[in-house]
Amino acid sequence: MGIIGVHLDRKATLPAAEAVIADVEAAGAPAHFFNVNAADDDKRALVCARARELLGGRPLRVLMHSLAFGTLRPFVGSDPAEQTSKAQLEMTLDVMAHSLVYWVQDLYAAGLLGRDSRVFAMTSAGGRRVWPAYGAVSAAKAALESHVRQLAVELGTAGVAVNALRAGVTDTPALRKIPGAETLLAEARRRNPGGRLTTPEDVAAAVAVLALPGAGWITGNVIGVDGGEDVTA
Fold first, then answer.
1. Which candidate in 86, 102, 141, 177 is catalytic?
2. pTM score of the predicted model
3. Catalytic status, residue 108
4. Which of 23, 146, 161, 215 has its C-alpha lying 20 to 30 A from 86's C-alpha?
5. In this structure, what CATH number is given to the domain that contains residue 77?
6. Which domain holds residue 224?
7. What pLDDT, on the 0 to 100 scale, is given for residue 38?
8. Is residue 40 included in any domain, yes or no?
């Protein structure tokens, strides 16, 4: 598949995005990447318009929503300046959860989601578990899963499948920003029946399988991609 990517990188991290582009092109597929804020309304409209040109009116096969940007502060603290503010809570839910709805709305309106399109959103066990300073992100993941169920019902007659993927603990730059990340990683290694952490490749393999023809009847679910890690908690 060709890839239309939306990412937000400064000069220091841009080589990682460029490496992905090179990998896609080396596999013989086109890659069109946009270094813009995926949570910005105007930028989303720009990408959707360009995607329509690139696809010539054909629908997307896969929409992968994976935005990890939010506040990591406690809700309540001895110092009010260090606790989650209203603006931070609203921003976290808007970026990590509500933006899925806005992308689906715009892509559907542009004719870019249709029969046999697949929509995936990345959630985590943190959507129903408590971890210090994770409250805002946890709320966003819970909202994201609710949005997935709603979208699956509303897009059912259009033949668009919508699912959330609940990856196990994965050693990524986003996870490393969570306070106590080393404890999370160690506990996941200990608890996982497979004896290891989940990898990005595990998640990619699940997406590839769920994007195959014939898998469109799988919709409205939170699908664990964790080697059984969640059931051992």
1. 141
2. 0.93
3. no
4. 146
5. 3.40.50.720
6. 59-232
7. 97
8. no
